[in-house]
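Justification of resources, computational component.

The compute hours requested in this renewal are based largely on the per-chain cost of generating structure records like the one below. Each record pairs the submitted sequence with a full structure-token output. That output is archived, and it is also reused by downstream analysis tasks.
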Amino acid sequence: MNTMKRVFWIAVCSCIVSGAQAMPLDTTQVQTHSLTAQQAVDYALKNNVQVKNALLGIRLQEETNRQITSAAFPHINSSMTTTYNPNIATQVIPNFISPATYQVLINEGVKNGNGNAITMPNEFGFIAAQFGTKFSANAAISLNQILFDGQVFVGLQARDAAMQLAGKSAELTQEIIKANVLKIYYQLVVSRTQIELLDSTISFVNKNLADTRVLYANGFREKLDIDRVAVQLANLQTERNKILSMVSNGYYGLKVLMGMPVQDQLILVDTITPDMIKDGLLANGAYQYSDRKEFQVADLGRRLGEYNIRRYKLSQVPTIALNSVYAKNAQRNTWNFLTQNQRWFTISNISVGMTLPLFNGFITRSKITQSKIELERTKNEIEGLKRTIDNEVAVAKNNFQSAVSRMDYQKQNLELAEKVYQQIKKKYELGLGSQTEINLAQNEWKAAQTNYTTALSEAIIARIDWLKATGKL
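The structure output for this chain reads:
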């Protein structure tokens, strides 16, 4: 796959990753952006949708932390109620009045109509009574304050780790976007070199066509030779148009990845040379796992897992809370609670309560065990990540060294192929060379151009991968 195809496919993949949606072009607000590679990265970090959402994730975590903190603050509530009882509830209670009355009569020696002394009956029955009023009202204010709750305290301790995790996740997203922007940016820069080389070839073929026509006019060449050169020129022009179309698509993909309106004009200011790619080649190749954003995210996940275990363990210790209520209560047979000089009765209380979990069906023990298993999995993933990082660094180093070597070789080969073409062309102009020789030299020169631009593109991508693998991008 040549350089321009790589540009095209990377741009297309970047569009898919960034979740782009087709939008109608608005040519009324077209802007021109002349950007260096770093400016393109900065633009993307401000406008890319994934980066924006990652930064919103930090704000969401801030709000989550505020919710956790709120559990440690007093909770104060107020309430007002009024009740109307169309039918006041009737309660049946033992007849406590008749026994007292009988006892007085017995004590006074009162006799019944038959002249016999009154005696206490065995059963007095029940009294149906209504308690309450038609209307009642209540106004209260209550306060609840946690004095000790292990789970709340662990949540407060874990806030910083949770914020760091959200921040590192955002940084990881930014790093991925940065790497993709740089790769596409520099591939498009390399495409300029390819087009320049192709234009140079077209210029030489144009001159060759003109020289062949002169030689034909003087009887030194056949008409077939002119047709062959004309076909070569047409093929080169067709290939140039195809490359320009692919480059245009690459620009569209880069704009979408950066979060730039597709209708805006983007000008890439930076250039690229082999010396720039080799600058500081593998200098200070030492690396640390902690330099990688992925490792930082995984390590914060481990810390949060440890907090989770502590939270479940502390859920088994007593919780202590302070509760207090201050209320006013009134009962009326008519609704006149807003009338002045009507009595309201005060109710108030303050209590401190302790809750001690005794048995909950072993669910807490199961949650602790589950959290320990999840923590162990996280630790295993961290160990696996270390091996992955080691592999990525080793592969990136090999690829970078190999790509630089190929780039140098292809550069020399390009220079040699151009010299060969120039020499054969001079022989051809003097009538000492054949059309077949010059066609072969031209094809070799063109192949050398393609190989060089491909090697140049692969080298810059390998450099970016090396920097990313070592956490130095």
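The chain is about 60% helix and 15% strand. The two ends are 26 Å apart (CA to CA).
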